[in-house]
Design goal:
The structure holds two protein chains of two kinds.
Chain A (H helix, E strand, L loop, with lengths): L3 E4 L2 E4 L5 E7 L5 E7 L5 E9 L2 E4 L6 E3 L9 E3 L8 E8 L10 E2 L3 E5 L1
Parallel strand pairs in A: 2-11
Antiparallel strand pairs in A: 1-3, 3-8, 4-5, 4-9, 5-6, 7-8, 9-10, 9-11
Chain B lengths: L2 E3 L4 E5 L4 E3 L2 E3 L5 E8 L6 E7 L7 E2 L2 E6 L4 E6 L8 E9 L4 E4 L3 E6 L1
Parallel strand pairs in B: 2-12
Antiparallel strand pairs in B: 1-4, 3-9, 5-6, 5-10, 7-8, 8-9, 10-11, 10-12
The chains are: A mainly beta, B mainly beta.
């Protein structure tokens, strides 16, 4: 049972390069989220999706794009990498909406360094 | 907007002793959920315990329990019989709204002394 799988686990980028962080889940959850965690800080929401074809901005969306063509996949794209995007990125899923106590399930994270 | 505040950046506890981690939050919504997540050095986010705002009874999971004070908007985590494996960063999180977005505190680093 894989749960939430993120790839790659670690990546170094040069300033101005682009890349896609992959997130795939096998739990058939409708809700998916991307967070970033800066050193010594909590997680901040970048983008989220409540189902295939629907995405919306979170707290810190600038410099990122997402798409949700299937229930399983929710990739996060950095178009022009900047040093401020050095962070650990977490993908998470949730089964239902606000009226539930079910927690979000997290992937193991992607550590991204931009030099 | 929702906020979660963890004012203690670090705490230390002797093995087998009890420690309490503090968390306060703010939201204008009446229906919400609170969570404590543990993040060990492996970076995984592991759910420790959850609390529904409409429940008066404090949640308990084995050695972990919460003190939920709704009027004070306080949600502290008590770890009893602390073990070396409890050493980690702990995050308090608030979930509101139909989209189930989580708002996290900055976290607290807990060390356990043998």
């Amino acid at each position: 049972n894989a749960g939430v799988t993120q790839t790659p686990k670690f990546r170094i980028l040069k300033i101005g390069q682009s890349m896609t962080l992959q997130c795939t889940q096998d739990m058939n959850h409708n809700y998916m989220y991307w967070y970033r965690q800066d050193p010594g800080m909590g997680l901040k929401l970048i983008y989220y999706s409540v189902g295939a074809g629907i995405t919306d901005k979170g707290e810190v969306p600038n410099g990122y794009n997402v798409s949700r063509s299937t229930t399983e996949d929710f990739p996060l794209r950095l178009e022009l990498a900047a040093p401020s995007q050095t962070s650990v990125y977490f993908c998470a899923t949730g089964a239902t909406g606000g009226g539930s106590n079910q927690p979000q399930h997290f992937g193991d994270g992607t550590r991204l360094s931009i030099l | 907007a929702q906020t979660v505040t963890q004012s203690q950046p670090e705490m230390s506890v002797q093995e087998a002793e009890t420690v309490t981690l503090s968390c306060t939050y703010d939201t204008s919504e009446s229906d919400y959920y609170l969570f404590w997540y543990k993040q060990p050095p492996s970076r995984q986010m592991i759910l420790v315990i959850r609390q529904e705002a409409y429940k008066q009874q404090n949640a308990t999971e084995n050695r972990f329990s919460v003190n939920f004070q709704k009027a004070a908007k306080s949600f502290s985590l008590k770890i009893s019989d602390s073990q070396l494996g409890d050493a980690a960063m702990y995050f308090c999180a608030l979930r509101t709204g139909a989209n189930s977005k989580l708002t996290f505190g900055k976290g607290i680093t807990l060390s356990v002394r043998p």
